Amino acid sequence: MATVNRRIQAGVRRGECFEIEVDGERILAYEGETIAAALLAAGKRLSRKTTKRKEPRGIYCGIGMCFECRMIVDGKPNTRVCQTLATPNCKIQTQYIDLQGRV
Amino acid sequence: MNKTAEVVVIGGGIIGCSIAYYLAKKGVRVVVIEKRDGLCFGASGANQGGCPVQLFESPILELVKESLKLYKDLPEEIGYDVEYQNTWSLLCSVDEEQYPDIEKHAQNLRRGGVNAHLIEGNKIRELEPGLGKDVIVGIEEQESGLVNPFKVTHGFAYAARKLGTEFFLSTEVKKIEINKGNITSVVTDRGKIKTIFVVNAAGAWSPEIGKMVGLTIPVRPRRGQVIVTEPVPLNKRWRYINDADYLTTAFHAEAAEKSKDPRMKLGVAGSYTQENSGNWAIGSSRDFAGYNNQITMQTVKYLAKRVIKFMPKLKDVNCIRMFAGLRPFCYVDGLPILSKVDNPSGFVIATGHAGEGVTLAPITGKLISELLTENRTSMPIDAFAFSRFKNIN
Amino acid sequence: MKIREIELAIIGAGPAGICAAIEAAKSNVPVTVIDENLRPGGQIYRRLTDAFAVTDENKLGKDYVQGTKLITELEHYSSKIELIENAPVWGIFTDKEIAFLHEDKSEGLKARKLILAEGAYDRPMPFPGWTLPGVFAAGGALRMVKIERVLPGERLLLAGTGPLQLVLATQLMQAGAEVISVLDATSSTGVWKYLPRFWGQWGLLKDGVHYLWKLRRGKIPYLMSHAIVEARGEQEVKEAVYARVDKDGKPIPGTEKTVEVDAICIGYGLIPSTRLSRLCGCEHKYEPCLGAWVPCYNENMETSLPGVFVAGDGAGIAGALVAVEEGRLAAIEACQQLGYITQEEAQHRSLPIFRKLKGLRRFESALNEIFSIRRGLFTRITDDTIVCRCEEITAGEIRRTIADVIANGTIDICEIKRLTRAGMGNCQGRMCESTIAEMISIETKRPVVEMGWLTPRPPVKPLPLGILAAEDTWSLESSPSGKRIDWGQ
Fold this sequence. Notes:
C: FAD/NAD(P)-binding domain, 33% helix
């Protein structure tokens, strides 16, 4: 499990804690957190590689406008993780899909 | 502005720019006038870029085949990539009762010299898992194409400019001056152009130009709506898929309108093109709403319903954009108008492409340039003559 | 399925939307607020998830405390206000018929009066490397820190213009992150000219001083006339290069410094979100110091479309305090037009608001002018810099296409979009439109206002085909989408 934990403790008390899976690795998430928050808390920033130039992208605008944070969540590609809540044992994968559909 | 030109082309769409190029190629000094702030602001900029051989019959089919030949060599000829590509295309049906019609259409295509063959539903799904279980039978051929209409238009403009054509954008034609039955000049809101030849390539707005010379051009805007999706992996075999109902809604509008099915009433029949980037453009529809080029809720709902019948997996894909365009539809017989007129002399009409404008752009340019410079065309265009509208003027 | 008809619809539950709703509720006008987020508050006053227990509001920042007051008032009127959350509006048809997504269905509402309170978003300002993971928009980073309570990085550089950066820096510092520096491309010379416009806004000035003082105490350098010029890294950002800039924002060669970072936050101010106001067909005007199009409105916040109002940052960037007042104004006028209150009462309630707004707007417009985007910042964009993030279009491709199109005689931003595909991606131009307009203006030496804008089309938010196709999707009998026909016929 990742040892990085960038959660800010001051001012809040979090609720239930559970595990989610990111590219095969188990990390922590808390009830009410978006997947983006859980990823950033674990120091993970890469969300996808672009289709044409295969460049790395990550969370950028944080408010669902830029579509950079798209990942494959429970098999569903193009899911904006800044808009999606983490759920226990959800499977998240960095999105590398080229035009031929190859992952 | 105070100029002289050998030919004035009114309309900066794909047809106008093509005509300008083919004329310029023959050494003609052309001026193109366009009322909007750029090219492709009409139907040329609101279509799916499809060049479907499989949807046409005579007399259009002959023109289509010639036009696609021109498209193949166009990039090298004009030095501009128009992104034309041949693609396997499928015309298919989700209605058992249409089976005989599909067979007949395949025969017609073959008679027209197209290498089209029938494929059964199971084989279709084997070749393309994305197509749903409702697809019963289809016709495929590899002669259709997909092209980037913006690049085609700008490419023609670029090549025409290199050969001396002048473009006047944001310029509106106000009057066409005639003396003793001959055109003498075109008056715009930015000045006058002396000329004896005018080509009316104003698409859905061609009737307005026709009125300026006392002609009733039987064209009316026929709106078509399109939904665009986010990119998805490219189809394995067919990136151009048409619904058999297209043949009804496009070419037998009266039958479609009489139908009890609300979808048919809106003229919605599938026409699906997948761009290189992976986005699906989902058409097609037909309705008459004047010059209103906005999308309507009902039509887009039926467009979405219909595509899911053909490609069920698309139901989870996001639509990111919708648009509508106005085809210049000839309400007498639905065929283009490519023709000189008796009066005034020097007035040429090149419009009425309501579903085949992108496909026929190269051949239209070539034929009109021949009509103007040699007074004869390399292919028969009697079916598209203005004189066929006997009781209109 | 017949569309539900309502008296007043408000799109957006940020400060403007909430105050508009409260004002309407006070007048007993049935009001529906539609908001795309899970909880109200917009960006600035968003509530934390219910799953987190707030133990000390003050640790969450001044804005959070302010927001709590507003949300409490909203809850007080909850029996009179219908709040539809998690409901992105995807289209508006014939100016007051609203299509939105809710619980996996596409629903519709027909309103007699409509208030658009769409808010704003971070202005995208490209520079080499800005697409690397670890480079965040300041607003997004602030949201992470305030609402999700997560640090986007441990060693951060902040770069941009304007006061939002100060808020972010303070929050990051208090949360234990190392903020290397806050860069502001603005030059401090000439700011004194604006001081008279700050007169009377002691609360706002105090806030500004408070943030600057906090940075001082935390020993975080606040460098004016500095801008980031490059973000470097392979899979994520590892280094930032910044330089001094001249008064036009152009980086001065030879002044570059490189620092190791694990995150960069870019904050060049906000752009009003005008997708819906454009879609309706409201008239807009170009605001040069914002570098953005804003809807036109009268003193009662009514747009060029009768019965359609705008309020808040979606009408022009002026912050939360202006947003709440504009929301109130818009609602009062709407209530009066609906016949629930008399003209006299409307005037009586609006008068103090007008007075309040005068000073506030003067202050905010001064800020906008001081921190306006300098042209020189666009010289950072090399040909290889990505401008359209969605479609991966570089500045070089766009510049080549601009040159090609200008040769035809005129140029419009739509043509650049169609030929390069920039603006055709998922975000439908939100991240690249302002940059492309500036680039065309720079290449053609014509003012940005002449470049036009990208024609908005529905859906304004992504809409799954299956939901659009569903039997119970509300659909109108052939009603066109809101925008007026753009052909002079």
